[in-house]
Design brief:
The chain is built from 12 helices and 14 strands. The chain is an alpha/beta fold. The protein has a domain of 199 residues: 3-Layer(aba) Sandwich (Rossmann fold). A hairpin with a 2-residue loop joins strand 2 and strand 3. 49% of the residues are buried.
Length: 318
Amino acid sequence: MNVLIIGGGGFIGQKLARRLAEKGTLRGKPITRLRLADLSAPPAIDAPFPVESLACDISDRASVDAAITAEDEVIYHLAAVVSAHAEADLDAGLQANLFGVLNVLERCRALESNPVLVFTSSLAVFGGDVPDPIEDWTAPTPQSSYGAQKAMGELLVNDYSRRGLIRGRGFRLPTIAVRPGRPNRAASSFMSSIIREPLNGEEAICPVSRDFLHYYLSPKRCVENLIRGTELEQEELGQNVCMTMPGQTLTIGQMIDAMTAVAGPEPAKLIRWEEQPEIQKIVSTWRYDYRPEKALALGLEADADFEENVRYYLDEDK
């Protein structure tokens, strides 16, 4: 089994690579080669099989053609320009989040190899005037450029799957928390920062109120769900191969309370509440009441509680 992770230098890409190295198999077959692709060649990982790193710019068709080969049986497409960046720079978002997906799909089409392609989408595809809760059949009505680009990617993955050009499946990720490292340009980045920085003894800024509701999943559970989603057979996915990944809906206050339950009262004292209109404008369009019945029926799971998310960070990433 040859596996390619596009976006393999990112946080989830690296965690996925390490988990595949531990697991050693995928879709019932031994993994024989893993390749990690990103704008710059990603860091290597230890594995019981060959691991290669390569540079790939998904907005450049020639670069994508060089990265994807007919031997790639499973392709994870995790690479993207994140939400606030895509909103600030329309061209950058279109090149990566729309044309980048199309470049990957067209390469698979040209090879006629029918790989399993796992696409990570976003809850930002939802918004607007549709009623809550968001269910499996709720129509995407994005209210940001990032959401629109991800929704177009989903439509393409569905159509190329319908045509038998790929065995596609797409998963709309909840906000992944707690992420290690430094904040990125995602509008949701503060949702990790307000936990991560205080646990590291640093001040963090929260731009929304304690009662702001959102939908979360730990990095560890996200990776396990991506692997479970990879191992599904195509007929299990139905006509719409894209779905919302299970998560938990919490207020910011509940997240902070969970951190306090695990780490004591001192970290929460390092959170400073400060409105940021540009962030509030984006996140106020996001929805939080999701009913991911299809994904749950297919064996994907949410975390038990947010304390589990905090413990995963302390045990694995801090």
